[in-house]
Predict the 3D structure of the following.
Amino acid sequence: MARVQFDKSKVLESATHAFWRLGYTATSMQTLVAQTGLKPGSIYLAFGNKEGLFKESLDYYAEQSLANLEGMLAQYESIEEALPHILLALIEESSQSEYCSCFLVKSQLELSDEQAELKQHVSQRLRKVESLYFEGLLKNNSEAEASAKAASVMMHIFGIRVYGYHTNSKEQLMNGIRLGLPWLAWETLH
Amino acid sequence: MARVQFDKSKVLESATHAFWRLGYTATSMQTLVAQTGLKPGSIYLAFGNKEGLFKESLDYYAEQSLANLEGMLAQYESIEEALPHILLALIEESSQSEYCSCFLVKSQLELSDEQAELKQHVSQRLRKVESLYFEGLLKNNSEAEASAKAASVMMHIFGIRVYGYHTNSKEQLMNGIRLGLPWLAWETLH
DNA sequence: CACATTTTTGAATGATCACTCAAAAATTTG
DNA sequence: CAAATTTTTGAGTGATCATTCAAAAATGTG
């Protein structure tokens, strides 16, 4: 065959799902072979090695997340209006069965300094999310205010990702973020 | 030998350090053998298996953390006064080289539903931390207020643990938590 | 349609995984 | 101090790990 036969996006979809759920280390190549339907040789030809497939899975996830985020931001007048909806969606997501937290957050915490390059790769995608919030906040805030508010939003998102993974209490999460982010336009939620 | 020869607390210290830094899956028994100085047979006689050693390491870490937290809370008049110092210490910690985030948070996110028992074990220790904050907050707050504030504090702590692991900006973290926790007695910090 | 090129196949590789166990050593007990 | 009990030792276990590669199959090219 001179043309690629498999659907790369479907392969990345299933690889992402496996890595997301089990983590980088705990996902074996044999699991990936089973999940993607590809034979070992095909994976190694297309992605180099396990780390290569992991990186492309991270990118696949990050691109979808960023696109989804930009879509949400575009739907509202201001970021102060959009964020309550975005955060509510994260909280709703966290109460689903088989909730896996955030692939980027999980990967960030799993990687140690021995995998500095991979860790930086993840870190870069997380910074991209923060800069999206920062840019939006610059419209109605000074640079210092926008920076602090973006950091606060990121910490609350991380909070939801961790808190929501070990407890199942939407109400508790909502009360927490309403208290911590009082400058958002919560009144437009209903 | 009819008496245990090795110092259990020293063994748990080094095992905790390895699990904390590398994660449960990525820490091999051979690494643990090298780090603890014990031979495989001794580890298995004392702790049953890798999971048993991991659980005792989690408990070792959790007990130290809770004791340290209780010590900090006892030093101040109110929890509103104590928390700025506690959070500042977490931020300072996050800027150290070889910072490993929080062992409990990392473990919580690493474990999937396939390891439900271990996951619950971690979850229980995290809830213990939250209930400590909740109890302290009950002194000056209604039950509903104390509950929401405790959730907010936990989310900010999770935020510091994740944010501080991928970025190195004490200032950004401080600005973020001052903004999100305005009801704390920040003025007593200096 | 033949030949060059590229992809797929899947059994096999050596390394490393968690874990075992019989023998040796250390300690308690009588 | 001798016998009983318990711990330590460390080479060895089969299973699973990431990865390879020669042969087969599928396409592009002239």
User: Anything to note?
Assistant: The two ends of chain B are 56 Å apart (CA to CA). The first helix of chain B runs from residue 8 to 22. Chain B touches chain A through 48 residues (CB under 8 Å).
